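[Automated response] Your request has been received and processed.

Submitted sequence:
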Amino acid sequence: MSILPGADGLPGSPAAAEAQRVVILSGLSGAGKTAATKLFEDLGYTCVDNLPGELLPELAELVAGDPRRFARVAIVLDVRAGDAPLAFAAMRGALEGHGIEPRVIFLEARDEVLIRRFSETRHRHPLGDQRGIASSIAEERRLLDPVRDEADVVLDTSDLSLRQLRERLFAQLGDESGPDRLAVQLISFGFKFGVPLEADLVFDVRFMHNPYYVEELRQLSGLTEVVRTFVLDQPVAGRFLAFVEEFLDFAVPAYLSEGKTRLTIAIGCTGGYHRSIVVAEELAAWLRARDFGPVSVFHRELDRA
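Generated structure:
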C-alpha cells in the first residue's frame, strides 16, 4: 500500500518531488565530507551521516513521504555503509523511484594530502589496519570508484580553503543560496542568568533605562509595543543601534571572507525580559532588510516570567 498521496502539491506528487533538493555526498575519508556537511547544515539541509546501508532505502521512503519536512536533505554515503556501491545504488534507485533526482557530489584529494590530514588530526581511517594509512587510502579509492563514476560532481579538495570549498559546492547546487551568505542568530538574555556560551558577539544594553522600574511596564515583555516604544524613545538606544549596525556592515563581509557561515549575537540586559528583547528584535529587522542571510531570534528568558 502506498503511503504517498498523488494530489498535486501533496507528498508523492510531481510538484512536491520537484521542490525537494536531495544531495548524496560521498568521497574519500579526509577529503572534507565533515566540513561539507556543516556547510549544508548552514543552508538548512537535514544531514544524515553514517547510516548503515541496509537502512538507506527506508530513509529514501521517509524523505519522499514528507517533502515539506525534508525539502532539503544531504545524505553522506561512504565506505562506512558497508558495500558502498550497493548502498549507493539502492539509495539512488529508491529516490528516483519516487521522482527525486539526487545530486551526487564526490570529494577526493591527493594521497599525500590525505595522509597529512590524518596525521594532523590523529583520526583513525575507517579501513585502517596494520598495513598503514597509504594502503587504506588505496583500498578506499578502489571500493569507491563505482560511486565516483556515477557522481554528477567530483571535487578535488587538496588545495581548497574552506571558503573555496563553499564556493565550489554552492556553484554546483543550482541553489538560490550563495557563498556570500551568513546565517545570523540573535539571542536576548539576562546577565543574572549567565552569558550564552555559544555567543560570538555579546552586547550589553544595561545602560538604557529599565522598563522594570515603571510599574505599568514591569510585567510586559519587550515584545509589546509599549515597552518597545519606551526603550527605543531613549536617545542612547538609537545611537547604540547605529553603532552596532555600522559595525556589522563592516564585520559581516570580513567574516564571510574568512569562510564563516554562522554568527551568533547575544544582547543582554539585567533580566533579559525588556531591553534586550527590544534591541534583538530591532537588530533582526535591520539584518533581514540588509539580506546578509537567514536571521533567527531566540529570547532565552522569555519563559522565566
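Summary generated for your ticket: Confidence is low (pLDDT under 50) at residues 1-18. The domain at 14-173 is CATH 3.40.50.300 (Rossmann fold).
If you did not submit this request, please reply to this message.
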